[in-house]
Amino acid sequence: MAKKDEKIWIIGGSSGIGEALAQKFAARGALVVISGRNKDDLAAALARIGSGHHAIAADATDRNSIEEAAALHGPFDRIITTAAIYDPGAVGKADADEAAKVFAVNLTGTFNVAQIGARHLRPGGQLVLFGSAAAIFGLPNGQVYSATKAGIVNFAQSLRTELWPEVDVRLVTPGFVRTPLTDKNNFAMPGLMEPEAAAARILAGLDGKSFEIAFPRRLIWPLKLLGVLPHRLAFWIAARMRG
Ligand SMILES: NC(=O)c1ccc[n+]([C@@H]2O[C@H](COP(=O)([O-])OP(=O)(O)OC[C@H]3O[C@@H](n4cnc5c(N)ncnc54)[C@H](OP(=O)(O)O)[C@@H]3O)[C@@H](O)[C@H]2O)c1
């Protein structure tokens, strides 16, 4: 499904992978609407994307703002939500309020965008949710974020069957991509990609037919293998990553 005149709403389009996706879709003739919470970041991203596109502030955890943005700019051919936050660290040191925010933005926010967005898609339109390689197997020091991403995987699977064929639900599973989100990491990130390269992989995947767009393979496959190994061996390997 690649149309020149399609209209695409990207929640999280003011930064990182979302912005890179907005630029790629705009470059091939789509009309792009980007959302996020910070208006200055939205304006700056919109200026980089180019003229003729739109930015509207919306918070994924605030259903009214999502509803208003959708009603103002919809219907859409694709709704993509990359909105997420990340607060890495040991579970014993995690701030409970910050953890609650991560659950709220990543899980409740994704639910809000999916439920409201599904009503503002053209028939057969795409709803694109973002998981993560971190969702494949629970690794040390990213528990809360990883748990939200694992929840999104399950949610996307449910929606895929529940909403098809009215809505074409897709799941994106990126490995490490250099963005403000991963700038917080103080460890070596195997297979680290630039946002433009990640966006190119995602765009090609969304034009194809696969439910899940997972990359890079050299990170995804070992993690998937970890998930099918006997637990004792898998946890022994995972413990080597505790740092
Ligand atoms: N970068 C990676 O290596 C990587 C790997 C695997 C998965 N992912 C996933 O890929 C997606 C994009 O990540 P990224 O690295 O591009 O992150 P990013 O650069 O931090 O961008 C996050 C975007 O989400 C927006 N956002 C955050 N909270 C929001 C909320 N409550 N409502 C609306 N918008 C909100 C941010 O804008 P405001 O702050 O202004 O709201 C920003 O535009 C995320 O789902 C992330 O979990 C990333």
> What is the level 1 CATH name?
Alpha Beta
The low-confidence parts are: none
Rg calculated over all Cα atoms: 17 Å
Helix count equals 8
What class, by secondary structure content? alpha/beta
Number of domains: 1
Question: What is the overall pLDDT average?
Answer: 96
The largest sheet, given as strand count, sense and whether it forms a barrel, is:
7 strands, parallel
**What ligands are attached or bound here?**
NADP nicotinamide-adenine-dinucleotide phosphate
Order of strands across the widest beta sheet?
Answer: 3-2-1-4-5-6-7
- What's the name of the CATH homologous superfamily? NAD(P)-binding Rossmann-like Domain
Distance between the termini: 43 Å
Report the CATH topology name: Rossmann fold
Structure summary, number of beta strands? 7
**Share in helix:** 40-55%
CATH-scheme architecture? 3-Layer(aba) Sandwich
Estimate the strand proportion: 15-25%
Secondary-structure map:
Blueprint: E1 7-11, H1 16-27, E2 31-35, H2 39-49, E3 54-55, H3 63-73, E4 76-81, H4 96-118, E5 121-130, H5 143-163, E6 167-174, H6 195-207, E7 212-215, H7 217-228, H8 231-239
Parallel strand pairs: 1-2, 1-4, 2-3, 4-5, 5-6, 6-7
Helix pairs in contact: 1-6, 3-4, 4-5
Bound molecules: NADP nicotinamide-adenine-dinucleotide phosphate.
Description:
- The protein has 243 residues and is an alpha/beta fold.
- The protein has one domain: 3-Layer(aba) Sandwich (Rossmann fold), CATH 3.40.50.720.
- It has eight helices and seven strands; from the N terminus they run βαβαβαβαβαβαβαα.
- The protein has helices at residues 16-27, 39-49, 63-73, 96-118, 143-163, 195-207, 217-228, 231-239, and strands at 7-11, 31-35, 54-55, 76-81, 121-130, 167-174, 212-215.
- Strands 3-2-1-4-5-6-7 form a seven-stranded parallel sheet, with helices on both faces.
- The structure holds NADP nicotinamide-adenine-dinucleotide phosphate (NAP).
